[in-house]
């Protein structure tokens, strides 16, 4: 299975303090994950140019072919990126938000040495109309740099639910600075209902036959609510889990797939052993929800449970980025050994 998200793989075994964390899963329902991050709409933005100018485009939906079409005509008076040479090499890029992982980007050709590029190109998306209407179109203009250091020139965001679909004419729109909602990934991806528990080594007493020789973290994935509906029939979802920094197969677990349901019930328990109490400060449980299809899986949202310090065993890592809610949930588990801690946490772009 491949996943349309970038992988962040932290090779911790190069360092001395390698925790030996194993895992097993209990199939109260049925449990692979990627330390993944949906590629940003603004990945590769190295420019500091103020947005200016206008873009001319038209939108249409082809009912027969079930195809959304963005006719990009031209731009005028774009910002100059290379002031010494007085040039910009612009192109136009589109995303459907918030589902940028599934639909991917579309972009025009690059027009060199002009701030008034003419494209006359159609960017196409195969998508059901009812699914399209819960999306937003993000159309942005960029300067193309040979070394990949592309510069943002401006954007426009269109709420497709309120768009006048009888309007098929080309119209001019002013380019705006980046919207905070897109930059920060503020969008509703659903909520995950789960419980976690830490069992310290030897804490159950010598007479207990299930007393773990090393500590255990138990993760009970109960259900998820309000997932993004990617198809009219719903979504075929499953949950993946890793305990970072371990990205080996021992750390990799997943639930079974629940089909055609935006509120799937998993009722699945995962147990990771090999934990010492001090490991809880440096480890991070990453749970991600994915839509399953034959050729590829699509990222829907996730959470990271940890202390959110940005450090793991003294090394700076970008995945130790838990939100306040996620940190509080993890801290409560650390302070209440052998007790199930229940939580309802919002899914986010990781």
From TrEMBL:
Cross-referenced SUPFAM superfamilies: C2 domain (Calcium/lipid-binding domain, CaLB)
Subcellular compartments: Cell membrane
Query: A GO CC term?
Result: plasma membrane
Gene Ontology terms, MF aspect: neurexin family protein binding
Specify where it is mainly localized.
membrane
Q: Does the keyword Repeat apply?
A: yes
What's the superkingdom here? Eukaryota
Signal peptide stretch: none
Q: Where is the C2 domain?
A: 51-173, 188-320
Membrane as UniProt keyword = yes
Q: Which Pfam families match?
A: C2
Q: Which GO terms describe its biological process?
A: exocytosis
Record's keyword terms, sorted: Cell membrane, Exocytosis, Membrane, Repeat
Instruction: Report what the protein is called.
Output: Synaptotagmin-like protein 2
Natural source organism? Nipponia nippon
**Source taxonomy:** Eukaryota, Metazoa, Chordata, Craniata, Vertebrata
